[in-house]
Amino acid sequence: GAQDLAKINSLSRTFPFAFCRNVPVQMALAVIVMVGMVVAVAGGSCQADDNALMQMNQGRRSTPPPTPAACEIKPLPCGDPNFANFPLQVINREGPKRATFNVLNLNDGSYTDVCDVPGAKLNGCGINPIDNAIYCVTADGNAQFVRVQCDFPPNYDPANGPIPGSLCFFGQTDGNFAASFDPFSGDYIYKTNGGEIDRIQYADITMYTGYASATDANNAGPSQVSPDNLVTNNPLNQLADFDIAKFAAGTLFMGMEQLFLVGCRDNKVFLQSLTNTANFAVVTMTDYGTSPSGASGASWLFRGNTTTPDVYCAYNDGVNGVIQVNVTQIFNDGTTDRIPTGFVSPSEETNSNDGLNCEKATSPFGPPRTVTTTTSTSTTTTTTTTESTRSLPTRPPPTTSTTESTTTTESTSTMETTETAPDPGSSTTTKATTTSTDKPTTTSTDEPTTSKKPYSQYGQHRRHRRFRRFLPFRRHGRHDNYDQHGYRYS
Known about the structure:
By secondary structure, this protein is of the alpha+beta class. Helices cover about 30% and strands about 25% of the residues. It has eleven helices and 22 strands. The chain has helices spanning about 1-15, 15-20, 25-40, 45-60, 80-85, 200-205, 215-220, 370-390, 400-420, 425-450, 455-470; strands at about 90-95, 100-105, 110-120, 120-125, 135-140, 145-150, 165, 165-170, 180, 190, 195-200, 230, 245-250, 255-265, 270-275, 280-285, 300, 310-315, 320-325, 330, 335-345, 355. Strands 13, 14, 15, 16, 17, 18, 19, 20 and 21 form a nine-stranded mixed beta sheet that branches. A five-stranded mixed beta sheet has the order 7-3-2-1-22, with no helix packed on it. Strands 4-5-6-8 form a four-stranded antiparallel beta sheet. Helix 1 (about 1-15) crosses helix 2 (about 15-20). The longest helix has 26 residues, at about 425-450. About 30% of the residues are buried.
């Protein structure tokens, strides 16, 4: 009856395997048919309950949320020559809290705000050379990998003021303190604590789902951002920013062309090869007299898609400005690896900042402003001083000329006395005076000037003494027909 059917239905749900072992086959088939009818009448409530439980256990929505407007890629106008060569810095500001993107004024070193992202702080920013979009990591506890949307209108002029920006969130990373893009592959390369250099491949970035907020990205489950480690080198932890470029580093590493991470700190340039991670060097700035100190919080790379890129480091102190780093001209002076550098532009004091630019664009900076002047002045001064020191004797003039002058003066005086004296006796006295005056003067002049006695006094004597050893001797040792001075006589 109904009670039996209810009992069988309960048993079939709770102990299906035990039920099948203890009930005859015919009865089991009948029960299965009746259970199917009940389920059909109930509208498949068991299956619906099971699906609901599965969704609850997975903690996910059955359909993905719609793509936020902020996650639409709005590429920067890197093809526009009026915009492409902007040296940009993201600077985090307070009152109100916001991340501002600023362009450098090459004349006075000031920064003009061109895009504001309200309520955010960003770091590790760069412009992807493939899709021309800005990517950063949020500078907060979430450390979200984000894409920045700054939709600049055509022919944008910074004088018109900043435009509003927004963020698209992809998921958490393991922290970020500096970053740049590989100008060839579009891979995002960033630095974490301890000098760890990690990479997010561009192919992965194109597959990420974007979210309107960090909360939505976190609620979607484990982070989809999955970087891989390239190298860990603790000295790289000193860098506040860096560039990724391919070049041959002068005489370093046998002049082999490699993909390098390049960054500045004080008057040093750090080079870490990503092609061969065993290749690492710290070289000293030289050649143009620049010796900056402190952190370089912004790095810029122009013509990054070539093997002769233009690399620049902007220092945060407001004093050292922007320094050009000639990475392809590194040399060794016999004791130290050195790199030519030069000052190209002022840059006002900044902090909580990072540099970015369109990496394939040409550089807006002119040649180093102190290269020619400083070098020529230094060379001329050094050369003149050296030649002057070598050509001018430091010894006093010879005493001969002074003595001759004195003798002439005294002789003239004596002659005048002789001519005016009316008395012959006086003239005789004068002659005696002249004789007595000239002789001592001449003698005192000649003797100090000559350090040795005249050759005629003993030079021949010495010569003949040396010669005497070859002269013929008699049996008793005396010379044959030669006197004691070596002169022959008959």
